[in-house]
Structures are given as C-alpha cells and as structure tokens.
Amino acid sequence: MTREELYQSIYTHDTIYLPPHEQTTAALEVSLGCSWHRCTFCDFAKDNFQIHSLEKIEYNLKVLSYLRPDDRRLFLLGENAFCMKTERLFQIMELTEAYMPNICEYTMYSRIDDVLRKTDKELERLRKKGLRTLHIGVESGCDSILEERQKGITAAQTIEALKCLDNAEIDYYLTVIPGLGGRTFSRLHAIETARMLNQVHPKNIWCLKLKLWENTPLYREEKTGKFDMMTPEEILREERLLIENLIVSDCLFEDTTVLDKFTVKGMLPDKKEELLQAIDYLLSL
Ligand code: SF4
Q: CATH for 3-284?
C-alpha cells in the first residue's frame, strides 16, 4: 500500500478536523460522531455515534506507528472521544504505549458532561497517564442560548467541569461561538460568556464563526424568522464586548475568521488593548 492508501485505511473521512493548535498532531481515530448529536447549529456530527472496537483501534495504531513513528503527542479522534469510559481510554493508552512508545501526551475533543461523568480520581489517573489537553466547545455562558440551541449543558455545569479539570491539572482549550444568540441575545451572550470564562482558567479561547449549515434546525429557524442572524460586523462588535469583559490570565484569545478574512489573536490580559484596537480598526474599514 502507498502512504496515501495507508492514511485512507485509518480515517473514515478524507478531511480530519483538528483544532488550530493540533494541526500537526498525529490523530488516532477511536470513535465517530457525537454521543449527544442534538445541538441545533451543528453540522459536524453527521455520523451516527460509535466507538471503534479495540481491534479496529489497534489496526489504526499499527498503521499510524508506521506513518508517524517519532510523534510524542496523540489526538484521539471523534467528536467527543472523552465520552468513553475511563477504562476504555486506559486500554487505548496502553495499546498506544505498545505500538507508539514515544507518545507521552494525549489530547481529544470533549463535551462538558463527559468531564462531569468522571470522578476527580479518574481525571487524576488520566492526567498521570498522559492526558494533557481537552478541546471543548462551550459556545456560550448564557443559559437561555444554551437551552435554545439544545447544547444540553448549563453555564454552571461548565464552570463545575472546568474547575475539576483545573484541580486535575488538565489544560482546556475552549470554543465560543459569537452570534449564537442572534440579535436578541447578543449583549447577554457576550457578557455572560465573559462572566463564565472569568471563573475558570482556559489556556485558549477560540472564537468560531457561526455558520448556518443547510439541513440544521438553526438554518430552518433563520429561514422562518425565528432566529435573527447577525451581520459579520454586528458579530464582531459582540466579540469586542466579550473581550472587553474578559478577565482571564495566561490565555491565548483568537478568532481566525474575523469578517471572513482576518485573524485576531493575542495573549490575555497583556494584549487586551491591542486586540480591542485591532477590532476597532477592522470595524472602521
Ligand atoms: S456537542 Fe459538539 S459535536 Fe455534538 S452536537 Fe453539539 S456541537 Fe455538535
């Protein structure tokens, strides 16, 4: 088999979605789809949820160890791979030790309730085994928006879960979606999201552009006038309000899709003023 054919044999889809900071991380597909599958804006969870068998994961590992023999960090692929039971995660980590002994760090996508289902002891065991970072879509700190978009979590649960990760010394990178509340909830979205984030310690806040994907409930809500989609400029003003209200430390803030073509990025709190000035400049264009 060629290298390309080997890669094709271990991934279900041609495109793999990794967060910006994991673009060069080796990815091991361990599951498909999302165990929740209900957020009304989401187009990522097209696959029916399934956790791969250990045999399939072992095959993927064997191939990956041939393709990426020297990698030290591994991304466990699946929309929320952290929903797996701790024992299954341990089995995967032990298989990894056998096939890719250089791997010493693990990272993956997670939902907030996946974290809450694990005990403090389990989180600590996982960190000791090499779990370094979870990538979590928190989307908003406003309960009305979370409920409307059927995210299945509350802001209080988010804070609780992230504090557990703080205690276990597991880093978390968070995704927020400006514009998710539409015009109606815009101010509340910015202010309550900042309020939530100010109580925890994200290493990274990544603002992800709200896209109305065809065939999603939110797309239909927009078509029938139930969801009041904001313009890119309005969304950027909302993002400015979010940054203005953020009091986080040692955290990289970034938006890679500002007005569809710019990236705004800087460490908080040091670069807060520069971020605000950059946004003001873009809004004045
Ligand atoms: S939890 Fe994430 S992947 Fe799952 S449906 Fe919601 S947005 Fe999509």
A: 3.80.30.20
